Amino acid sequence: MNSLKPQKQTVYCIPGLSASKSIFEYLPHSDSVEYVLLDQKFPLAGESFDSYIERWSKEIKIENAIVIGVSFGGIIAQELVKHKAISKIILISSVRSPRDYSSMMKVFKYIRIYKLLLTRILKKIYKIEQNPKTEHQRKMSAMLKKYLPYRDPYYVKWSAEKIINWIPAEISIPVLQIHGTKDEIFPFAKTKKAISIKDGTHAMIVTKRKWFEENLLNYLID
Questions:
Q1: CATH code at 171?
Q2: What are the tens digits of pLDDT across the range 49-90?
Q3: Which domain holds residue 116?
């Protein structure tokens, strides 16, 4: 008698701002799960956020898939429900709404200096990447090149503006939030009912890979 193989659960993975799909290289593998690692998408000149999300939605080929979104990728994942039937969203180092933003980010929305700050941050990253002076900086340079290679100023500023001014979509499907207790971008204290990763920073998808290898499948297959 032929036995039917169980159908795999398709999981789409969306990287965050400036990140490559390499950040997902340590996700745990299983015969029950098939990951689709999506490449970064860049905004067209003058493109609206809705149009940008619609372009992302065309990458979702399977209905009722799970979508994992890291940081800005988590915001994109939540917006996808306007266009696609999704069974579950898993947020990693991301937010459910602007209520989860730090007080500083909320101030940025009104004084509009975040673009200037981002420009300075990009210059600092570029300087470390191109001329590392210590062993720590050399390791950081290698990680930046691998995991955060996309730093076109227009793309970064456009994305930052969409994050700051984001108005969440109505969501009726399950949303699971996994968050580090030392996230320096989206403070853990602002999250509600998140699964906590002790000492996890905003980059924990890479730096806390053991936790994801040991635990993530429990939330994908239930």
A1: 3.40.50.1820
A2: 999 999 999 999 999 999 999 999 999 999 999 999 999 999
A3: 9-220
Distances (CA, A) of 5 to 32, 134, 203, 220: 10, 52, 36, 18
Q: How confident is the model at residue 124 (pLDDT cuts 50, 70, 90)?
A: low
Question: Can you tell me the mean pLDDT for 8-37?
Answer: 94
User: Tokens in use for 10?
Assistant: 């398709």
- What's the sign of the alpha-carbon dihedral 90, 207, 203, 26? negative
For residue 168, tell me if it sits in a domain: yes
Largest CA-CA distance found in the chain, in angstroms, rounded = 69
Of 56, 4, 65, the C-alpha closest to 35 is: 65
Q: How confident is the model at residue 1 (pLDDT cuts 50, 70, 90)?
A: very low
* Helical H segments across 32-113, by residue range: 49-57, 72-79, 103-111
CB atoms within 10 A of CB 51: 11
**Cross-strand bridge partners of residue 177:** 91
